[in-house]
């Protein structure tokens, strides 16, 4: 009987349901179903199906008149052959909508968002919860009620309500939904967002960690590296730009030591999705540190930082001055600049000679006509 797939079955709203019983026996066993000590026979509610190979199914079609009184409870599947008998109990329960969602843990309150958790002891009605519903509105604006749907997780993940107004009192209430339906909303809860401030710290994403040493970030290329990050909460004031500082560092037994001043780049904000920046003119087989922070009219965020390593290269590295690195372009060698000047002077002389020749011809033509 150990192969019986389910020993607890759920149904609701007069939905038909079936139970499967598997009896492994030699010789083959005769299978019968019982409820409250009475054998079950086919009728308007029950139908027994023998599939052979020691498998029997009990189909139950509830009716409103007997739904609560007779259908729910313990069913007994009993298998008998010449060597004896064995049985297994299968419980049929009625599933309901989830219970009230009142036990909320507030994780973090910011100027434009609130982060919270739902405790795992929430009553699910016998069916796993699929969604959470959050209704919220400003305390003094009852007409503008907003609803947000979020997928539910038993892992106590963080849930985020964003795009709120700074320094504003909001009224929240929560409800859960399973396959049966949506439960009632729980008690209302008032929370006030914080006042405007500097942006939150931006976080790097999609970092190429080494396959062997998973704590080390390895650039795919020896002379460039692309960093990506998501737009952090602006905390009430729009983010104007991001600042990236990167510089080579020397790895020692005591940690990392900077080798020169950081190279600073500013990245404008174009949208609310992931932003990226490719760092170029890097040296191969070297360690670099990258620092990233966001800026709004109230100041800079706390910086995020990473350390990455460039792989070795088959080609020699070029030497760049600090001015060249900061400008993001190479200076031309003096010889090339001198050549360009000489060509420019020659072109000017040729043009002047042509103009002089044209003037002489015009004067001669005028004298001839006179």
Characterization of the model:
It is a single chain. The chain has 370 residues and is mostly beta strands. The chain folds into 3 domains: 8-94, Immunoglobulins (Immunoglobulin-like), CATH 2.60.40.10; 104-192, Immunoglobulin-like; 204-327, Immunoglobulins (Immunoglobulin-like, Sandwich). Helix content is 13%, strand content 39%. The protein is built from 3 helices and 25 strands. It has helices at 67-71, 322-327, 334-369; strands at 8-11, 17-22, 30-35, 38-39, 46-52, 55-60, 73-81, 84-94, 104-109, 114-118, 131-138, 146-151, 159-161, 169-177, 189-192, 204-205, 217-218, 225-229, 241-252, 255-258, 263-268, 275-279, 287-296, 299-300, 304-309. The strands form 6 sheets. Strands 17, 19, 20, 21, 23, 24 and 25 form a 7-stranded mixed β-sheet that branches. Strands 1-8-7-3-4 form a 5-stranded mixed β-sheet, with no helix packed on it. Strand 11 and strand 12 (146-151) form a beta hairpin. It is elongated and about 135 Å long. The chain crosses the membrane at residues 332-360. InterPro entries: FN3_dom, FN3_sf, Ig-like_dom, Ig-like_dom_sf, Ig-like_fold, Ig_I-set, Striated_Muscle_Regulatory. Pfam families: fn3, I-set.
């Amino acid at each position: 009987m150990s192969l019986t797939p389910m020993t607890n079955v759920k149904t609701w709203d007069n939905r038909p349901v079936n139970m499967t019983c598997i009896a492994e026996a030699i010789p083959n066993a005769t299978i019968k179903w019982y409820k409250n000590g009475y054998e079950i026979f086919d009728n308007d509610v029950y139908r027994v199906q023998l599939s052979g190979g020691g498998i029997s199914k009990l189909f139950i079609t509830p009716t409103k008149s007997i739904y609560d009184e007779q259908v729910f409870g313990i069913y007994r599947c009993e298998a008998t052959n010449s060597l004896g008998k064995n049985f297994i109990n299968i419980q049929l329960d009625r599933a309901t909508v989830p219970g009230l969602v009142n036990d909320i843990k507030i994780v973090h309150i910011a100027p434009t968002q609130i982060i919270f958790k739902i405790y795992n002891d929430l009553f699910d009605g016998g069916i796993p919860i699929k969604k959470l519903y959050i209704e919220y509105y400003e305390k003094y604006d009852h007409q503008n009620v907003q609803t947000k749907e979020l997928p539910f997780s038993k892992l106590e993940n963080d849930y985020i309500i964003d795009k709120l107004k700074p320094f504003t009192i909001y009224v929240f209430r929560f409800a859960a939904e399973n396959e049966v339906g949506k439960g009632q909303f729980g008690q209302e809860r008032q929370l006030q967002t914080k006042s405007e401030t500097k942006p939150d710290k931006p976080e790097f994403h999609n970092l190429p960690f080494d396959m062997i040493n998973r704590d080390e970030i390895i650039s795919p290329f020896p002379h460039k590296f692309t960093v990506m990050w998501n737009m952090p909460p602006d905390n009430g004031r729009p983010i104007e730009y991001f600042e990236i500082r990167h510089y080579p560092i020397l790895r020692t037994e005591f940690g990392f030591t900077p080798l020169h001043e950081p190279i600073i780049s500013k990245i404008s904000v174009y949208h609310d999705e992931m932003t990226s920046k490719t760092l170029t003119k890097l040296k191969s087989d070297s360690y670099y540190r990258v620092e990233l922070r966001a800026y709004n009219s109230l100041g800079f965020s706390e910086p995020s930082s990473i350390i990455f390593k460039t792989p070795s290269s088959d080609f020699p590295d070029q030497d760049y001055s600090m001015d060249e690195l900061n400008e993001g372009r190479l200076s031309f060698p003096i010889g090339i600049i001198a050549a360009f000047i000489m060509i420019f002077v020659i072109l000017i002389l040729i043009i002047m000679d042509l103009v002089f020749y044209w003037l002489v011809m015009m004067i001669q033509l005028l004298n001839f006509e006179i």
